[in-house]
Amino acid sequence: MLCAFSKLDKEKIETIKSAEKKMGKTLLAFSCHDVAAETLTEEELDVIRKTERELGIVLVAVKA
Predict the structure, then answer these.
(1) Whether pTM exceeds 0.70
(2) Could you say which of 10, 16, 25, 26 is the most buried, measured as most Cβ atoms within 10 Å of its Cβ?
């Protein structure tokens, strides 16, 4: 399973803000997806690592 920040419309953001106000807490919204990791060669791993370093992000290879 892979989770990332949710893309929310204004209505959902307002609903979350209301809940935050009631609790006095900050909430983060995540959406999760079932994915399977791809099998990679050492060369492919090197490409991913180089790209991650260059961009300052984490990449995950998944089966399409």
Answers:
(1) no
(2) 16
